[in-house]
Amino acid sequence: MQIDDIARYMAHVGAQARAAATAMAAAPTAAKDSALRGLARRLRAGAAALQQANARDLDAARAAGLDGPLLDRLKLSPQALQTVAEGCEQLAAMPDPVGGISGVKRRPSGISVGQMRVPLGVFGMIYESRPNVTIEAASLAIKSGNACILRGGSEALQSNLALWHAVQAALAEAGLPPDAVQLVQTTDRAAVGRLIAMPEHVDVIIPRGGKGLIERISAEARVPVIKHLDGNCHVYVDAEVDLDQAVTVTDNAKTQKYSPCNAAESLLVHERQAAAFLPRIGAVFAAKGVEMRCDGRAAALLGGLPGVLRATEADWGTEYLAPIISIKVVDSLDEAIAHINRHGSHHTDAILTTHHPSAMRFLREVDSASVMVNASTRFADGFEYGLGAEIGISTDKFHARGPVGLEGLTSLKWVVLGQGEVRG
Fold this sequence. Notes:
With 424 residues, this protein is α/β, with parallel strands linked by helices.
């Protein structure tokens, strides 16, 4: 869509969103749930047409030279459609957080003081590739009583338009304002600049994409940003461990899918298990074509396997999003924790251990949004956490941290209940 006056267009979109947000904040739970169930039905019934729109984006992306991981993110597979449809239904079945009052305490003055959960208002979502994010963001906005303005990548425009039309139809059918979910219909980058600089219309910005995009948004935005820059996730194999389980979990964390931000990018192995564990996982990685960038001790134990290289200092802090992993042998749990806190991105890190005290120390001391014991980092996901869907992963420490679901899209306000009390 060609839009001549970006500033005027975005101001119009913002004003519509603000008006819709007022209606959504007061919307009954039944109407929101009806919209979500209707959207799930439309996604399933319209799967063929949605995939046709997605195919046009994929063809254009291939012609433009996009590589494998980016094409993978862009693809709207039948499984992806089924997952987002299930996410809508899961959200519809969840309790509505809006309007709930908690922590009510009676004060000596006679008043009762508590907190009510309320929508944020309008959030702007800026994302690349993955068209399933359109549905995840829209469904979370609906259930949490917010309005949202979505700006997907130009490479997914046809897919996003088709999905957005399904969302608007579901909202209208449920008696809710279709403008509660809006898609920026221009690929002009100036629209992003306007979206992140409209505090009168937008309450928070959520960027989801590459590090460059998120750094730009964070630097230029005039409204608060919920973000994570990258996902340098670690798996640490402890001194006491079930080796068979460790091989299975490490393999899954790295190779189940290479492109997500919760895929493992670095492997740390305690020196007591290195000789037993590294040749086994190394053989698995080599068979799958995973390049292993190793410190000296790891390289010595993996010698002779294809794909073994010496790591540089930069490798410890790199998010590859590719079949590459950095591997280091450490002398202790202390060294592993220090390495993760120094080089990690505070996204998701896992310990594989049979020693409970080590597990508890790891959970307490690793400074990340998700910390795991004996589980694949690939579980760091709103759907897997039971949130229904996620708007993204936050590595910030204020407002929301980790997968951002319904509660992350709401805030708390103080409420006071009285019976005519006055302050003396």
